[in-house]
Amino acid sequence: MAIWDDIMQKLEEVGQDITSLDVVTLTGDLDLTAEVSSGGLDEMVRNLKDRVKTQANLQMVAYTHVDLDGDVVSFVREGASNEDELMKAHSALVKSSTESRLHLVRFLKDLF
Q1: What are phi and psi of 54, to 5 degrees?
Q2: How many helices (H) and strands (E) does the chain have?
Q3: Which pTM was predicted?
Q4: Are 84 and 60 in contact (CB under 8 A)?
Q5: Do residues 86 and 80 make contact, with C-beta atoms less than 8 angstroms apart?
Q6: pLDDT of the chain along its 112 residues, tens only?
Q7: Rounded Cα gap, residues 27 and 79, in angstroms
Q8: DSSP states along 65-79
Q9: Spatial CA neighbour of 99 closest among 9, 6, 23
């Protein structure tokens, strides 16, 4: 019975997650530095998230939020245009993510 409860909980989480889609395109500099301890590479990899220091100078180029009911909110940085390679990449990511979400919704619909 516990397995069924776990499955239902996971499906509920997926159901909540598929109700909206967010795509954010950033540009800038991102520097990640990891400290290596005396434990060697294996220990560093296991504890990577605790050992990484981040310095970032990021700017949002575009943001798109899509709700399951079709409502869309989109932001494009001033000066960005459809000719900009970052805008082309953002548009491709929105299209790809929307198609993936549609396939997931169809799969879940067919499952039940």
Answers
A1: -120, 135
A2: 4, 3
A3: 0.65
A4: no
A5: yes
A6: 578 788 778 777 766 677 888 999 998 998 877 666 666 667 767 776 666 778 889 899 999 999 888 889 999 988 887 778 999 999 999 999 989 888 888 887 787 7
A7: 14
A8: EEETTS-EEEEE-TT
A9: 23
